[in-house]
Structures are given as C-alpha cells and as structure tokens.
Amino acid sequence: MPITDLDPALRSVQATYDQVAVDYTDLLRDHLATSWTDQAMLKLFADLVLHPDEGHDGGRVGTVADIGCGPGRITGHLAALGLDVFGIDLSPGMIEVARREHPDLRFEVGTMTALDLPTSSLAGALGWYSLIHLPDHLIPVALAEYRRVIVPGGHLLLAFQEGEQVRHIAAAYGHEISLDLHRRRIADYEPWLRKAGFTIFSSMVVAPGDREKEPQAYLIARAEPKDGPVAA
C-alpha cells in the first residue's frame, strides 16, 4: 500500500506528528536519561537481540527496526547499546527531525500496516508507544506485518499506556491537535499477538511516576515459526 493510501486514522496521526515534530523532540529530548524502567526494558531487548539462543535462527545477530521511531531518540539509544538499528515513521516531519538529530543513522518514511521490508529481514523490532493511536481494527494488521519481517526467534518490544479507555487529545506539545490515544492492557494484546504468530516472553506494568499520569506497560514477544513454537 503506498504511503499516500492510508486509513483515515493514520492520515490524522501523520498530519498531527508532522505538526508537532520539532516541539515534541525538544520536550522529550532528555526524558530517557532518568527513565530507569525504559532503560531497563530497552537493555533487555538489546541483550536478547545481541545474544540470541543458538536454537533460534542459528543464533544470528541481525538488524532491528524502530517502527514509529518519531525523532529517533530510542533509535539512537539502541544504537549506543550496540544494535544495528534504523527507524521508520509515518510522519515525514518526524523523519526530517530524526535525520537531523542522528545523521549517522538511517531513517525512512513508512507505515507499520504495510512495511516496505523483506520477509524475515529483521532480528527484532520495536513499537515504542507507536501503536497507541491505532484503532482496534488496525492492531492485527500491524502485528502481522511485524511478524512477517521478524525472523523466527526474533523479538518484538511494545510499550504503551495501560488502561481500557480511549482519550481524545485536543492539545499537546504547544499545539492544538485532534488525536485519539488508545489505552490497552497486556491481556488485550495477548490474542492479537498469538494470532499474528508471537508468544509473550516478558511483560511488566509500572505505576505512574512523577511525569506519567497513568500506568505504563512493556511487553516483549518472540516470533514463532509458522509451524509452531521455536525449539528451546
């Protein structure tokens, strides 16, 4: 599907993040430096990619995609942890900022519902707060694409706000916007992941902190082969 042929919900997300890209980047620039839980989950994910089990795809280390990368702050952090990583985002404005902020890394405009990547080309992928604006009917589409591009035994890391409501956002990052934020539970993702071909490896919910208004959820899932679970 061409990037211009988007679900209406995605067109709204694209336009919004084009609008707020610069201010979003400035506001969150130092957020990761004191977010210990974020750092811990990203380190676990990086270790799983850098030290794969020998029984999983021959134990090969490969490339990771940060899908929904925004201005590339997580992409850059994973690169510093030793991963061969690149970023994809729906927003050309965000990609422009990411290329400027991280000129040594690769960033591409793309949509997680139709990734322009070969099948089984990634050792792992992230959806770091990047599925939160997708309505329910697009979550299985996105997860199926994640599974298509990740090798059996590879890993997917998701982060999202934990809850059960949809919150409409009318203003953010100093701009008037119109965007829906879908809070979900880890239990909501379990059947979607299973149908897409993943099994959950680890999950965690963290209580709200000083900067967060709601619990934050983290989930690492492993891509299984089409004929069943990867042998241990």
UniProtKB/TrEMBL annotation:
Swiss-Prot/TrEMBL GO biological process terms = methylation
- Any keyword Cell wall biogenesis/degradation? no
Which UniProt keywords are listed? Methyltransferase, Transferase
| GO MF annotations in UniProt | methyltransferase activity
Tell me where in this chain the Methyltransferase domain is found. Answer: 64-154
UniProt key word Methyltransferase: yes
Could you tell me which Pfam families the record lists for this protein?
Answer: Methyltransf_25
InterPro entries hit by this protein: Methyltransf_25, Methyltransf_Superfamily, SAM-dependent_MTases_sf
Q: What PANTHER family does the record tag this protein with?
A: METHYLTRANSFERASE
Protein name, entry field: SAM-dependent methyltransferase
Organism field: Kineosporia succinea
